[in-house]
Amino acid sequence: MQNVNLIKKELKLPSFKKWDLDTKKEVAKIGMTASMAIVVGTSFGMKSKIMKNLHIGAGVALVGFSLWHHMLYQPSKKSSAKVAQETTTPTEVTKPKRTRKPKPKEA
To answer: For residue 16, what are the contacts with CB-CB under 8 A and spacing of at least 6?
Structure first.
């Protein structure tokens, strides 16, 4: 009976796709800060096997959060295609800037 109830219930996890971009950026920053604090904190107790494993795990998490943070700041493909389209259409013609001729050296 319990198995049937467990199958019918859906596991409600937070969907990362529903978060807006600012929330994702904040979560990435908080994750980087927390994992950096754990890396620094565990660096003082590297003689223990548990501390070594925690140190390595936090380092891997730091790299993961950093990559995620970096990817959040990349321009989206839709906006970059729009920018490329705008740059190919000439809007106005500008005159080239005049440059001064170098003065002849005095003898």
So the answer is: 24
